[in-house]
Queue: 3 jobs
Job 1
Amino acid sequence: MMGVVDENGLYAIGEVARRTGLSVSAIRFYSDEGVVAPARVTDAGHRLYDVRGVARLEFVATLRELDTGLEDIRRLLAGGVTLTELATAHLARLDEQERRIRSRKAVLRTIARQHTEAEQVVLLHKLAGMSDEDRDRLVDEFWNEISTGLPVSSDFLGLMRNGPLVLPDEPTTQQLEAWIELADLLRNAEFRRTVREALRETFSSPGAAFMTSSTMVDAFARGGEILTRAQEAQRAGVPADSAHGREVAAAYAAHLGALAETPDGPAFRVKLAADVLDVERLHLESIEEAAAPSDPYQRYQSLVAIIDGTAQEAAEFMPFAWLSAALTASAEWTGTPEASHSER
C-alpha cells in the first residue's frame, strides 16, 4: 500500500520508508522499541503514520547516522534531555574517540617504524595514555637526575627545561609519536647517563660559568622578547623598513650593544644584520639535524619542540630575515638629519 490511505492523511509503512530512507524493518523496530509509535494500527496489523510520525522518524534516522545511541534518542523524544545537551554529550564522546584513535595510530606507527618487540607494545600503549601528572613526574625525575651537580644557575636550568612539558588536549599524531619516543628515552638509563655526561662536559668549558649565570639568563630573556616582537610584526605584515621596524631594530641593537659593550651606530647595525642572517642559517641547519641528531640532548630538545608546538611555529614564522632587513633599514636611517632630530 502506498501514499495516503485514508481521509486522515495517514501513510502506510512502505511510503514512510520511501520518505525517510529507513528500511521497513527499521521502522518496525523503532515502533516495537517505543521510539516512534504509529498513529494507528489497522485491524489487519498494518502500521500507519501521520506527518508528525514521519518527521520524527526522519529525525531518528539523522541521529542514528550521527551514531547517537538508541537510549539517548528515546530520552530526547521523551523530553528527558534537550537536543543541545544531547549534541554536547555526543560531541564529547566523539572527541574522546578521536583522541583514542590518534593515540592508537601513534602507537602503531611507532611499532611499525621501530620494529617493536611484542613485549614492548604494552609499554608503548601506556606511554601514549599517560596522564599529565605522570608525564610531569617522569620529566621531573629525568631532570633531577641529569642536573644534579651541574655548575649552572637555577635560572639557566629553568631556561633549559623550558617550563612544564604540556601535551595539547588534542595532540596531533606527530606530537603523540614524539611523546612516545621521548617518554621511552626518559626511562632509558643509558640515555640519561649520556645526556648527563654531555652536559657536564659542555658546562665545564671556559666561559661556561658566565654564559649560564643569572645575568646571561636575563639577557637571553630580553633578547627573546625582542625576537618575539619581530616575529609578531612579521606575522602581521608590518614592513621591516617602517617606523615600527626601526623601533624593533633599535631595541635589538641597544640590547646587543650593551652585552658586547659596543656603541650603537650604522656600522654596528649593518654587522648585526649580517649576524642575524648567520643565526637564521644555523637555526635552519639545527632543524635539519634534529631529524636524526647525534647529540642526545639535541634529540631531547627537538622532541620537546614538536610536542609543545614550537617547532612548527618556528618553521613558519622565523623572524631573522625580517629583523635583518629592519636593522639594515635603520642603519641607513640613523645617519639622516631626521633621525638625529628624533633622537634629541
Job 2
Amino acid sequence: MGTSDAANDLLLTALLGNSTITKQKALNIPSVNGCIEYIANTISMLPIKLYMEDNGKVKEVKEDPRIKILNDETGDTLDSVQFWKAMVADYFLGKGGYAYINKQRNSVISLHYVDESQVSINKNADPIFKDYDILVNGSPFKPFDFIKLLRKTKDGCQGISILSEIPTLLSVGYNSLVFENALVQKGGNKKGFLKSENKLEQDVIDTLKEAWKKLYSNNEENIVVLNKGIDFKESSNSSVEMQLNENKVTNSLEFCKIFNVPDSIVKGAASEKDYINGFRTGVLPIIRAIECALNRDFLLEKEKGSYYWAFDTKEITKGDILTRYQAYEIGIKSNFLQPDEVRYEEDKEPLGLNFIKLGLDSVLYDPIKKTIYTPNTDKINKIDNMKGGEGVENNSNTA
C-alpha cells in the first residue's frame, strides 16, 4: 500500500509539475499581499507603551529609552514602521520574525531586524525540557538575545508559515496569475495543434512553425494561412471557459479567511464595522503575540511581574471623531472619566478640573452602614427603618 501511495504521489507531481511557492510568489497574489499589508500597516501605526503595576495601581512609564526604540528609532537601518512591517511579513511567510536585542550590560542600545532566511535553529532532542540556540551566519546566540514573533509554533523557536500550511491554495492563486499573464502576452490565442490530411514537406512545416511562432510571440497583426487539408485543433480553454475570474474571487475569499480579515477591506469597500471586525479578528491576535514576546525578552528579569508592554489600541478609533467623542461623553456622564483624563487621551493640556459631576437626583447607598443618602433633600435614611420618615437624619445636623 505504501509503494502504491508513493507511486501515486510521483505521478501527481509529474502531472502538476514543480509548483513550489516562495515568499515572493505569495506576495504576487493581490489578496495575500493586501491582507499582510493591512495587518502590518495597522500594527506599525499603534504606539507601544510601557506600564508599571504597583499595589493594584497602573502607571505609564514614559522615560524608558526602550520606548523610543520600539516606536521611532530602532538603532538599525530600519525605522520602527519598516521594522514591524518586516516582522509581520516574516511571521506569515517565514519561520517567524526575529530581532536581535543589542545590549550593553542591562541597557538596550538598539534593536536589529534579521531576515528569517538568515536564521537557523539548533534544537536539543528533549521533547519536554526544550532548549535551542539561534544561529545567524553560523554564529550562535541564546533565545533571550532575540525577540521572536512566531506563528503556530510548537517548540517556541520557529513557527509555521502559510507557505507550508496551505501550499496548494497559494500555488493555485499564483499559477492563475501566470496563466493570465501568458494569455495576455499571446493576445488571448489558444494553444493547439495542426492536423493535415496529407503529408507535408519539410519546408512547408518550417514555414508554418515560423508563422505560428510570430502569431504567439507578440500582439501584432500576424496572419497564418492554412491551405486545404490543414486544420487547427484547440488543446486549451480560454480564461472565460475556465471561469478564471470566478475562481479568483473564490480564492481571494479563501485567502482572507486564512488571515481572518474581511474581504471588503482588501477590496477597499469596507465599512466602519468591517474595519473593527478586521482589527479584532486579524490584528489583535498578532498584537497579543507581540506583547507576549516583548514581555518575555524585552524586560529585565527583575522587571517581570511588575512591568509590562502593551499597544495603545485607542489610536484605531481616532479616525472616527464622532464615535470617540460619544464614548467620552458616556464615560464622563457615568463618572468613570474626568474632563482632564479625556483631554490627556486627546493629547491636550489639562485644565485642572479634577472633579466628578454628581446630580442632585441621585440616591447613594452605603452597603456597609446600610444607609441611603439623597443629595436633593440632604437626608440620610437607614434602610432597616424606613417607616414614615422615622430614622431620618438631617445631614446638616450630624457632625
Job 3
Amino acid sequence: MLDSDLVIQLGEIVGSGNVLTSDEDVSHRKHDYWVLSHLQSWVDVFEGRPGAVVSPHSVEEVQAVMRLANETSTAVVPFGLGSGVCGGVRPDQSTLLIDLSSMNQIREIDAFNLTATFDAGVNGLEAEEAVAEHGLTIGHWPQSIALSSVGGWVSTRAAGQFSTAYGNIEDMVYSLDAVLPNGDLVTLGKAPRAAAGPDLRHLLLGAEGTMGIVTGVTLALRKQPEKRQYRVFHTPSLSAGIEAQRQILQAGWLPPVMRQYDERETRRTFKTWSMEGHGLLLLVHEGPEGRVEAEVNAVDALADSCGLIRGDEEAGIHWMENRNHVPTWNELFDRGLVVDTVEVSSSWSQIEDLYNSVIESVSNIPGVVAVSAHSSHAYRTGINLYFSFAAAAEDPMDLEPIYLDCWKHIMEKTAECGGGIAHHHGIGRVRKPYLVHDLGESGLALLRSVKDALDPKGLLNPGNLIPDA
C-alpha cells in the first residue's frame, strides 16, 4: 500500500475527495480492456490494484503530483479512459494511478487554421462532435471512439477506420503538452511543419505512459466532406482484392476506408451480401463531390481489371451503421470462448504469405475454433491484416494458455514473414516479449536508453512496453 503520509499530501494537491484508496473505489481502475485481464477477473484469479487513484483537474496538479511521486520514488501509471487492449495498465499496490478523465476541457477550436486543442482526458466522440458543430472533423475514427480519450490516442499511436486518406494519429497531431517524470511541462510542436532537430513529439506518440504524461493535444482538422459514396466488390481470391488495393493506392487514389474481408469473415460479417467462394472489399469514398466522382470511376475500372465483381452498396451502409458494435468479453466467456484481434502489417509482396502462414499455424492450435482476417489500413507501400481468433475450452482455466499460444504463433509467423508485429493497438504487456522482432536488440537498447534518460528512476508505467534487458 502507499504510505499514508503520501496519500495525505496527494489530497492537499488535488483535494481529498479526488484521492481514492478503497478496494471498491479503485476497482474500475485495476486494468484496461485487455481480454486477458478481464478473463483473469472473470475466473477470479486477477491480482493487483493501484495503491491509490488520484484525479487531477489541471496541468499544474499533474505536475505537482508527478513532482511528489519523483521525490518519494513512487511509481505512476497514467490512465485515460481504459480502452487499451494490450495490457498497458496493470498497476500494483505500490503504484499511484493518475486518472486523467477529469481533465476533459475542450480548450479551443480554430476553424480558420483548422486546429483544435483538447485536454488529454476528453472523450474521443465528444471531441469529434465538438468540431462537427463547426462543420469540421478530426477524421480519426477508431472503433473505440466513444470509449477512448484524445490523450490515449496519442499514447497508443492509434489508427482510425478512415486512415487510408486521413492518416493515423501521428499525422494529425499538431502539438502536444506532456508532464515529464520530474514534473517539468513540455510543449512539443509549434508550426505546421518544422526542421528543429528530431521531432520530440514522437517520444510521447506510442510511449504508452512510459516517457511522460500527455496532458493536452492539438489536432489538425479537416472540413466535413461534401459527398460520401460506397463501393462493394466480391473478391474471387485474397490476392485479387489485395492487388486491386495496391493498384488503387499506387495510382494515387485515396478512399478513406478500404477493408478487405477473407471468405470466412465475409460469411460472418456480411452474410446477407456474401457470394459463395468469395471475399469482400468495401470502400468508402468521401470528400469534394468532383473528386469523389473521379475516384469512384477510376476505382471501378481498376477493380474490374483485377477480376472483382461489383456488389450491393447496402453492405457498405450496413458496415457504417454497425461497425462499432461488438459483444463484451464476459458475454464470450459465458459461452466458453476467448476471442481477440491481432493487427499486423507488411509489404504488398509479403502479405499473402503472412496471411497463409498465420491462418495455418493458428488453425492447428488445440482449442482454436475459428481464425480469419481482414485488412483495414493500407498504404502505397503495404497493408495491414487484422486477425481474429476464437478458442474454446471446457475448463475456463484452460483458456489463458490457449490464448497466449495464439498470440505467440501470430507474432512469430508475422516476424518470420518479414511483417511488423504491431499496427495500431500498441505493445502493452501482450506484445512486449515480441518487440525485439520489430526493433532488434540494438533498437531495444536504444529504447531503454531513451527511457533511462527521461525517467532515470523508472517511475512511469513500470512493466509496460519495454522488455527488461
